[in-house]
Amino acid sequence: MRDKILFVIGVAAILLLARDINAIIDLPEERNQGIIFKIIFFHVPMAITALTCSLVAFIASIGFLITKNFKFDAVAVAVTEVGLAFLAGNLITGSIWGRVAWGIWWAWDARLTSALVCWLLYAGYLMLRRAIEEPTQRATFAAIFSIFAFIDVPIVIFSIKWWRTQHPAPVFWGGGSMPKDWYALWAWNVLAMMLVGFVFTAVRLRQEEFQREIDSLRREAHAI
Amino acid sequence: MAYVQQVATIFAKDLRAELRTKEAINASLSFALVVLLLFSFAFDPTEETTREISGGLLWIVFAFAGTLLLNRSFARELGNDCLDALISAPIPGSALFLGKAFANFVLVMAVELIALPLFGIFYNVKWTSQFWELMLVVVLGTWAMTVTGTIFSALTVNIRLREVMLPILNFPILIPALLGAMQLTSALVAGKPITEDNSAWLKMLIGFDVMYTAVSVVLVETVLVG
């Protein structure tokens, strides 16, 4: 049953993405930026998905510390990995956009810098998991670090914003807005990315559950 | 009152253990010296350039040297199962944590207070014009570093690659605090007092300290006992 639902959601995500990409291709070029502006239809939804992932990871981590139920730990690791991939996509698309719009691959702009710091934080989370063998300890320590990281995200964003407002920042978007139907298309693509993220997380979650089952079977075999 | 006494006992024990061997503090001091020296090759150390980047330079030295001390904080207890004894001692985990954090704070501060005049001598910078405000920033930044460093030291003490994991976990978390401390230090070393312009950094630094102290005190029991 669960597999079937997952399959349906996955197909829906692919269809939605295909439809959106088709519509995005047909859009006219933006006056100042040309074709590169279309990256925003993927760039921003990826950031939104990544942020959602970090929120879910935070909630799951607290859930694990309270209940000691390993399901929460599996959710936390699955969602963190997926969020990290989306954030990487966000950074890469942003970098490509910057190369065309600003002429440079990277600027120490507030948003770029905060995104990079967040990426490093959650990469640290995954590295910490790798370094711990014992499952209960791994889950506990990872949950604690996830809470620390999540608290850090708003402080990082605000502090880097302050830092950057003291310096001349590169021109960014100029406070423009999109036509209404473009905006709707963009919102649909947010949904598509969220669905993709959900399916990835669910698949990764199942993998984590299998892993736990294999581990326990192995322990049982050793005991015999 | 008993709680304060427990914190003080752990604090005194840690300081005594370190001051008798002096292994971590010596390593940390010489490392700070080496990094200070290396920076002189990285750029032309005229007074003007040095003043401009003094905040970044000093806090990178402090963070690196501090990590060496923080790494030892819980690793020191591994021999003879001292850590298990400490955890089973009749004191709350938060007292153990605070005692260790204060001891680390004193040690890191000691290294910093030696490195700071050396920086002034090596780079010909008169850094004392805003002495007390600079001290306030150093104290706040160092506390931020020690409070997260101590809890991550406890977190990483039993795992593989302990020495590597601590900075990998601690530095990204510390970025807001280090950023604030760097901005303030650069301004203060250049002789500009803290004004309305950069008092936001001071508030952020205080907020960071308060928040992470609170979170660490709440979570330390889980780290130690599981």
Describe the structure.
- The complex is a heterodimer of chains A (224) and B (226).
- Chain A has 224 residues and is an all-alpha fold.
- Chain A has one domain.
- Helices cover 81% and strands 0% of the residues of chain A.
- Chain B is mostly helical and 226 residues long.
- Chain B contains eight helices and no strands.
- The longest helix of chain B has 30 residues.
- Chain B is globular and about 55 Å long.
- The chains are: A mainly alpha (224), B mainly alpha (226).
Strands, helices and their partners?
The complex is a heterodimer of chains A (224) and B (226).
Chain A: H1 2-26, H2 40-67, H3 70-101, H4 110-131, H5 135-165, H6 180-223
Helix pairs in contact in A: 1-6, 2-3, 2-5, 2-6, 3-4, 3-6, 4-5
Chain B: H1 2-21, H2 23-42, H3 47-75, H4 82-88, H5 93-122, H6 131-156, H7 162-189, H8 199-225
Jot down its keywords.
heterodimer, A: about 220 residues, mainly alpha, about 0% strand, globular, B: about 230 residues
Q: Which consecutive residue ranges of chain B, at least 5 long each, have pLDDT under 50?
A: none
The radius of gyration over CA of chain A amounts to: 20 Å
What is the succession of H and E elements of chain B? HHHHHHHH
Rounded mean pLDDT of chain A is: 85
How much of the polypeptide of chain B forms β-strand, as a percent range? under 5%
Order of helices and strands of chain A: HHHHHH
Please, what is the average pLDDT of chain B? 90
Shape of chain A: globular
Please describe the biggest sheet of chain B, giving its number of strands, its sense, and whether it closes into a barrel: none
In short:
With 224 residues, chain A is mainly α. Chain A has helices at 2-26, 40-67, 70-101, 110-131, 135-165, 180-223.
